[in-house]
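chain below, 302 aa
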Amino acid sequence: MENSTGTAGRDCRPTEVGEQAVVDEQSVDVAAVLRALRRQADLSQRELSARAGVPKSTIARIESGDAADPRLRTVERLVRAAGGWLLVGRPGDRPPEVVPVPWVPHDGMRDEAGRRYPAHLDVWKVRDPKDWPGAWWAEWWKLPPERWPRPVPAATYELNRQYRDLRRWGERIRHEVTVRRVADGLPATSWQFLAELPDGRLLGELRAHERNPRLLYGDLIDAGEREIVLDGVLVVGTCRQLGTGRRLVEALTAEMDRAGITVAHAVADFGGVDLLLACGYRLEASRPYALRLDCSPSRRAV
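prediction:
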């Protein structure tokens, strides 16, 4: 073990750990490596115990640092069960290439009892009841802070792996999606923005058009005045609540600033109202009617 190679920090917490990971003075931080491998393999301590044939209590002691010098054979069984491997060699030997395993992002966080959170789960800080699933189930997240039945925890995590995977997928979408304006093939007064993934998959679209306010207000408006009318914002159903619609509206606002246009109008309902209010739009006193033209043959016969 002393001749395993890799990278780590002086505080024995690696910034990037792999199947070969060490700290200064060639001392292996077995606990950090095991937690990182277990997270990468999506294994709880109980599941790793069953796969490796090592008692769960032994794994817990190793990961907590209570087992300061675990047996090499035990470590080997755990590493292999988690999909990793050990390398033992001589100084100067060139190790083979390995795929780095990211360290556990919440490794430095502790619960109220001073324990680490499960390495294979995702942990996030709780700033208000909306961040804590327990408040949603109890339905007291709507209450003001002085009426909360108990303080919210400093952090929480999702035990349900399906929900956890959906959360991870959402975070990946937020990170990878890009918004761009489409100009080719459109009239000069038409505005179109697309939200896409790197592979070209379309997640959302915004369309708008310019109008001349002088047609409405006559000579009360300067001849060069321009306004935007937001025609609609569409986002793929599975990607809603991920901020894609807001990014599209913010891209429109930024383009309006560059064009010197200061006013935009929109008509929205349901969730669209909340989206536009969050983006700085304000409700107007007018109440437009919702109308529909149906040109199907069955409607014409009526």
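The two ends are 85 Å apart (CA to CA). Residues 1-108 form a domain with the 434 Repressor (Amino-terminal Domain) fold (CATH 1.10.260.40).
thats it, cya
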